[in-house]
């Protein structure tokens, strides 16, 4: 009884297995769809193109189809370069000599070719004669060429019983001049096969055969390396055109570098680091010493604030008098209200901060209250210089530009990385381009073309203030030197740190004591150097009371 139960169980299990097998395999068995014979001939032409002729003996079995499709790879990689083959002169003819319609769909690195039936669906036993011409399929290295091709591709969902391929060269070679390779099987698990070489007069034929049936997703791959002989590969210009078409993202870093360099040369370089500017005989138009110093140094320098006080004294808005002893010098400032209101906001703020409705003040005792209005003075300077378009872009604007550049290149790099039409090196090219442009934007010191022009003017004016007339021919057209010129430009010379050089140009000039600066210790021995030294001392007093404010 026990033995009968066991036998019955085994029998039932076998029956279940058979039923399951039949259920799973019946559609395919009944359909019996397969390619019974796949033969291809590749004729390599003198112009380096390849003429492909394929014959498919296709068995649809009991199935009926309105269309069938096959996949061809169109792009391959060699190092960091990407190459794409192109197809022309497509033709598909059935066993009755009827031309069939074709549709093409490019999907990433592959080309989907769809063969459509005319009238009645495909069924039973059909023959397809497929022909096309391939360009850019040869990889040329020096005097040798290499032809690599996946005969069937690895995307067939049905089996291929017999697979053969022939490669025809239009010139006869000896066997030792040709290197062959043959692989078959699924992608990533290929096995070797053994091609055959047949050499006749003026021609070479290479035969490749799959040693077994190719199951779904399996393919036959051939490789032929041979001397170029009479084959003429495309010209370097054509190759460059093809390379640029497929690898244009690799040019992005070079284009970014070139555009960044041009941008830098046009509106990004710093004129303060160059010495190649012509002499200018006046300061930039409509810029006071403090405005020029703020733009030039990018900081509110107390020495420049002192120079602005001298400038206001030269213009008649206040008077300066040295008081105390020579070892403990102090300065009294007197406001001249009869001159009239100030035209510049920052100059009005300076006078209001100094005097605070007083007519006279000792500088050493009152400068302690100046920092209370330094921020207001700085805001006024920025506003005025922006209106005159001579101030650099703010840090926030620069960060916005850099962020925008990074965002644009980052989005492009992400798109290329996810797009199968481009290699990963393309995404890296865009990413590196974004890094390059962002670095240039961060390091770019200029504030625009007008900023550079004004800065060049300042450098030319500094040259004029620094060079003695007898020692250079560069300033032979300089304006006539007189006390008014010396006093007008002395505050600018103090901003640029060349006040002693400027004073030296007036050593031989007889000058009277200026009305806006009184020094009881001169005792009739006035000369430009004395005034320059006194103003430098006054500048140090101001600098000792007011800290440097960076922007």
TrEMBL record:
Segments forming domain Predicted membrane protein YciQ-like C-terminal: 281-506
Superkingdom of origin: Bacteria
Keywords: Membrane, Transmembrane, Transmembrane helix
Pfam families listed in its UniProt record: DUF2207, DUF2207_C
Transmembrane segments: 396-416, 422-443
Domain named DUF2207: residues: 35-169
Record flagged with keyword Transmembrane helix: yes
InterPro entries: DUF2207 (IPR018702), YciQ-like_C (IPR048389)
Protein name: DUF2207 domain-containing protein
């Amino acid at each position: 009884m026990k033995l009968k139960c066991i036998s019955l169980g085994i029998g039932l299990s076998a029956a279940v297995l058979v039923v399951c097998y039949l259920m799973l395999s019946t559609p395919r068995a009944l359909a019996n769809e397969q390619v019974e014979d796949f033969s291809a001939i590749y004729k390599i032409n003198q112009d380096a193109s390849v003429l492909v002729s394929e014959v498919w003996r296709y068995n649809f079995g009991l199935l009926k189809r309105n269309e069938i499709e096959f996949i061809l790879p169109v792009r391959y990689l060699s190092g960091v370069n990407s190459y794409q083959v192109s197809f022309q002169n497509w033709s598909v003819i059935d066993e009755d000599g009827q031309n069939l319609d074709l549709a093409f769909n490019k999907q990433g690195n592959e080309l989907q070719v769809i063969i459509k039936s005319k009238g009645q669906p495909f069924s039973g036993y059909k023959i397809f004669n497929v022909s096309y011409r391939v360009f850019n399929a040869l990889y040329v290295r020096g005097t040798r060429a290499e032809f690599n091709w996946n005969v069937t591709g690895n995307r067939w969902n049905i089996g291929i019983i017999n697979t053969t391929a022939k490669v025809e060269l239009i010139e006869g070679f000896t066997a030792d001049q040709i290197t062959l390779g043959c692989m078959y099987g699924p992608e990533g698990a290929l096995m070797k096969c053994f091609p055959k070489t047949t050499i006749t007069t003026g021609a070479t034929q290479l035969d490749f055969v799959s040693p077994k049936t190719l199951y779904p997703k399996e393919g036959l791959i051939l490789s032929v390396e041979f001397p170029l002989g009479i084959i003429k590969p495309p010209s370097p210009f054509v190759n460059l055109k093809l390379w640029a078409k497929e690898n244009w993202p690799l040019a992005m870093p070079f284009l970014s570098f070139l555009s960044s360099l041009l941008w830098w040369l046009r509106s990004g370089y710093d004129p303060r680091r160059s010495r190649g500017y012509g002499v200018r005989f006046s300061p930039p138009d409509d810029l006071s010493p403090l405005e020029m110093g703020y733009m030039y140094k990018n900081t509110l320098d107390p020495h420049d604030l002192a120079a602005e006080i001298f400038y206001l004294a030269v213009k008649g808005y206040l008077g300066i008098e040295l008081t105390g002893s020579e070892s403990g010098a102090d300065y009294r400032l007197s406001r001249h209200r009869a001159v009239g209101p100030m035209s510049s906001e920052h100059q009005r703020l300076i006078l209001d901060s100094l005097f605070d409705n007083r007519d006279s003040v000792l500088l050493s005792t009152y400068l302690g209250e100046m920092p209370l209005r330094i921020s207001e003075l700085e805001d006024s300077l920025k506003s005025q210089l922006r209106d005159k378009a001579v101030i650099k872009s703010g840090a926030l604007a620069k960060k916005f530009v850099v962020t925008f550049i990074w965002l644009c290149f980052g989005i492009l790099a992400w798109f290329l990385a996810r797009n199968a039409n481009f290699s990963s090196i393309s995404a890296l090219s865009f990413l590196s381009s974004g890094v390059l442009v962002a670095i240039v934007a961060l390091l770019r010191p200029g504030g625009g073309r007008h900023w550079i022009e004004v800065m060049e003017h300042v450098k030319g004016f500094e040259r004029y203030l620094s060079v003695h007339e007898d020692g250079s021919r560069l300033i032979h057209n300089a304006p006539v030197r007189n006390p008014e010129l010396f006093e007008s430009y002395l505050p600018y010379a103090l901003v640029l740190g060349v006040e002693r050089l400027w004073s030296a140009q007036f050593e031989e000039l007889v000058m009277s004591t200026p009305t806006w600066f009184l020094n009881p210790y001169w005792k009739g021995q006035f000369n430009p150097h004395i005034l320059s030294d006194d103003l430098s001392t006054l500048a140090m007093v101001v600098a000792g009371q007011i800290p440097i404010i960076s922007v």
